[in-house]
Amino acid sequence: MPMRILLKQYYDLIMQISPCWLASPEEVSKIFPPNYGMFDLVIVDEASQMAAERGIPTLYRGKRCVVAGDDKQLQPYDLFQIKDEEDEDDENVEVAKIESLLDLSKRVYQQTTLSWHYRSEHQSLIDFSNHAFYNGRLNVAPSSINKSDPPPIEWVQSNGTWENRCNVVEAVDVVKKLKEILRLESI
Prior knowledge:
Blueprint: H1 3-17, H2 25-31, E1 39-44, H3 52-60, E2 62-67, H4 93-96, H5 101-108, E3 116-117, H6 123-133, E4 139-140, H7 168-186
Parallel strand pairs: 1-2, 3-4
């Protein structure tokens, strides 16, 4: 029996057995009825990479919402999505500029910035972003990587030039560096 039918017939029992659910916005729309406030709390993670129109039906189902994301990450991208062209004189142009659920949420909800980063295996991977994008505000958890290991990021000077949407010299330098890394790893 499909989950949507089970929920329709045994909603109260299923919610007693399993009050916490993990699902994508598409699955939420497929499985759960569009009832306002059916969940005490809805948490949406990676909201900077989710189109606003995909996340709104999920948020509608929550009495309270937490929308987490990072506007320094890539915006949602869907090659096959067709967007209506907006007239520049249209009063809704500002709404049309909203790309992600995070963008929309920042207009409605109170914002809180996290201060700790702990997910990078090597501290120097986030150190660059911390200073380039976050003005050094992130506290980066120390790495357990051996100091003698090669650095995860290395600056390599390449004297190529961008011509016809291509930089051949830089591409050759990248391939050389990759071969060097692969040769060292196979030893």
